[in-house]
Design brief:
Length: 301
C-alpha cells in the first residue's frame, strides 16, 4: 500500500496480558479506535511499542495481525531499531514479506556511530529493500544526529522519503524545507511540538498520546491543515499536560495508563519496565483524570 508520508501516524503501544503474552484482542480495540478517528498510518514496534523487549516472532505476529486487521485502510509501518546492520536487515526482510507498507528506521542502537558509519548503516538497509523509509532523527534520546549534509547523501536512495523530526529544534523544519523542498517529507516526532511543527510546514505527526486520545490528535492535525488555527490551538492547549507525559522516561507506562482511562488499553508493561508507583503514579493519574474530565468537544471537520 502506498504511503504518502502525511497526517497522523500513531506509534502504537504493544498490549500484553497479565501473563506477558501479546494481547491482540485489546490491541485490536485500540487499532479500531485509531481507524475510527481517521489516522493516516499505523507504526508498530517503536520505542513506545516496547520494541527492545519484543521477540522476533512477536514482531512478525504484530505485523501479520495489523495488516490483516486494517485491510488496507491505512499503511502499516514497522520500526527497525537494532545494534548491527545485519540484524537490522533481517527484520526489514520480515516486515516486507509479512505485508508492511514501509519502515521507520533508527540509527544503530547503543553504539554511537560516526557520521560515516551511520550513513553506511542506513544505506545498506535502504539498498536491501524496496519499501519506503522514514529516518528517525532523535539525537536527544539516541545521541546520533542525522545532519542535513548526511540527508543529502541518504536521499540518493529513492526509497528514503521522510524524516521523523525529533531534534527539538523547530528551526530545523525550515532548514529541511529550504534544502530539500518536497523531496524529504517531515513528520513531527515530539508531541509537545506538534502543532508548532505543522504550522511550520511539517506534513505529519508521529504521535504518542494519540494512543489514548485519537480523535483529539487527528482534530488538531485536520484543523491546522484547514487553516482553522484558533480551533486547533484550543484543543492543543487542553492537550498539553497530557502531551508532556510523552517526553518522559516512563512514557510507556504513562500512555498505557491514559489508554486505560479512555477504555482502549491495558496497563501491563514488559520487564524491566514496571507500572508506576507512589507519588509519580498519583501525579500522572491526576493529569489523566483532569484531561478526561475536561475533554473538549471536537468541531465538525
Amino acid at each position: 500500500m502506498k504511503i504518502e508520508w502525511k497526517g497522523v501516524m500513531p506509534a502504537v503501544t504493544t498490549k500484553f496480558t497479565k501473563d506477558d503474552k501479546l494481547d491482540l484482542e485489546m490491541f485490536s480495540i485500540n487499532i479500531q479506535a485509531q481507524l475510527d478517528a481517521g489516522v493516516h498510518a499505523i507504526i508498530l514496534g517503536g520505542s513506545l511499542g516496547e520494541a527492545s523487549t519484543l521477540e522476533k516472532e512477536e514482531k512478525k505476529a504484530l505485523i501479520e495481525h495489523t495488516v490483516d486487521f486494517v485491510q488496507e485502510k491505512v499503511p502499516v509501518i514497522m520500526n527497525i531499531a537494532e545494534k548491527t546492520t545485519k540484524n537490522a536487515i533481517l527484520p526489514v526482510e520480515s516486515a516486507e514479506n509479512n505485508g508492511a507498507s514501509g519502515l521507520m528506521i533508527l540509527p544503530p542502537m547503543q553504539y554511537k556511530a560516526t557520521d560515516h558509519e551511520t550513513l553506511a548503516y542506513f544505506d545498506s538497509i535502504a539498498k536491501s529493500t524496496s519499501l519506503p523509509i522514514m529516518i528517525y532523527n532523535n539525537p536527544v534520546d539516541y545521541k546520533i544526529e542525522v545532519t542535513l549534509d548526511m540527508f543529502e547523501e541518504l536521499l540518493k536512495n529513492k526509497n528514503i522519503q521522510a524524516v521523523k523530526e525529533s531534534t527539538r529544534d523547530l528551526t530545523n523544519i525550515t532548514r529541511i524545507k529550504n534544502r530539500f523542498e518536497e523531496r524529504l517529507k517531515i513528520l513531527c516526532g515530539v508531541d509537545t511540538l506538534a502543532m508548532e511543527s505543522l504550522l511550520m510546514g511539517a506534513e505529519g505527526w508521529v504521535a504518542g498520546l494519540v494512543c489514548a486520545f485519537p480523535r483529539e490528535t487527528v482534530a488538531i492535525y485536520e484543523l491546522v491543515k484547514a487553516g482553522r488555527v484558533e480551533e486547533a490551538a484550543k484543543i492543543y492547549r487542553w492537550f498539553m499536560p497530557l502531551l508532556e507525559l510523552d517526553i518522559n522516561p516512563q512514557l510507556v507506562q504513562n500512555i498505557k495508563l491514559a489508554e486505560v482511562a479512555t477504555g482502549i488499553g491495558t496497563e501491563p508493561v514488559r520487564l524491566p519496565r514496571m507500572p508506576l508507583q507512589g507519588k509519580e503514579r498519583k501525579r500522572v493519574l491526576a493529569i489523566i483524570e483532569q484531561g478526561v474530565r475536561t475533554r473538549p468537544k471536537i468541531p465538525l471537520l
